[in-house]
Amino acid sequence: MFDLRRADLHLHTSCSDGRLAPAELVRRAREAGLYCVAITDHDTIDGLEEARQAAARWAMVVVSGVELSVQVEGEEVHLLGYFFDPAHPVLKEALAAYRKARMERLAAMLERLEGVGVRLSEAQVQAVVGNGVPGRPHVARALVTAGYAESYGEAFQRYLLPGRPGYVPKPAWTVEEAVAILHEAGGIAVLAHPGEHLRDRVFRALLQAGIDGIEVVHPSHNYYLVQHYRQVARDFGLLETGGSDYHGHRPEDDTLLGTCTIPYPRVERLRATLRATRA
């Protein structure tokens, strides 16, 4: 008998740069026919408990997840962490330090913007952030609310892209640090959305750092890229994951939710492989 349950292992909530609160996102996921989800907010796990409480009402599975920004060979790469212990002290300490660095980055961005006559307060940005971790998307939305740009895209183009007056590089761990933290907390590290242009030197560095998997299914991957990365996973002994990268701001997000998925039995295999490896 076939197991028709589906999983989406790449979802963002309002705890980072997504639109929906964790409980509402879980509700939407259930309506979209999903059985298993992973909340993978950027550099925070604050939404995990709320998501799990909501999922318990419908007997859904919530995998602990996070998306971390790392530096690899001078490039920013994103790692997805899964199945870790959210209460692990090493992980909690690392995420707290990263939140502090994000707040320092926000202060630097606001100072640079003020230098070109854009007076935006931390309180105005926090009104957009809520309980999340501040980043450029929040500043962009605050700029629109304050009347300094007509749209989210214009805010980025005028102020927040590299070379623009409000740009400050994102703090990032090295890939070795991030992988070590995830492993220490009992989880796995997966390369997120490699896309069309995964450089060989970057991939070699990721392998050397000990990544466990690669995100094969993603909205930016067409059929041929999915097959390509599936083969890459087989060739290098990597685990396969996938998901919609749902944020809730794009028109296509609601279509992707429930359709850009992987079979739930693959999640069980990931968990079993992790148990066997750790044992």
Summarize the structure.
With 279 residues, the protein is of the alpha/beta class. It has 11 helices and 9 strands.
Describe the structure.
The chain has 279 residues and is of the alpha/beta class. The protein has two domains: 6-94 and 175-278, Metal-dependent hydrolases (TIM Barrel, Alpha-Beta Barrel); 98-160, DNA polymerase, domain 1 (Orthogonal Bundle). The chain contains eleven helices and nine strands. α8 (200-209) links the parallel β6 and β7 (213-217). The longest helix is centred in the middle third of the chain and has 26 residues, at 89-114. It is globular and about 65 Å long. 43% of the residues are buried.
Category by helix and strand content: alpha/beta
Helix content: 40-55%
**What is the tally of beta strands?**
9
Q: Which ranges are low-confidence, i.e. pLDDT below 50, for 5 or more consecutive residues?
A: none
Compute the number of helices: 11
Report Rg: 19 Å
| End-to-end distance | 30 Å
The main pleated sheet reads as: 9 strands, mixed
Helix-strand pattern: EHEHEEHHHHEHEHEHEHEH
Examine the secondary-structure arrangement and name the CATH architecture of the largest domain.
Answer: Alpha-Beta Barrel
Please, how many domains?
2
Mean pLDDT: 93
Global morphology: globular
User: Which fold name corresponds to the CATH topology of the largest domain?
Assistant: TIM Barrel
Give the C-level CATH assignment of the largest domain.
Alpha Beta
Strand content: 15-25%
What is the H level of CATH, i.e. the homologous superfamily of the largest domain? Answer: Metal-dependent hydrolases
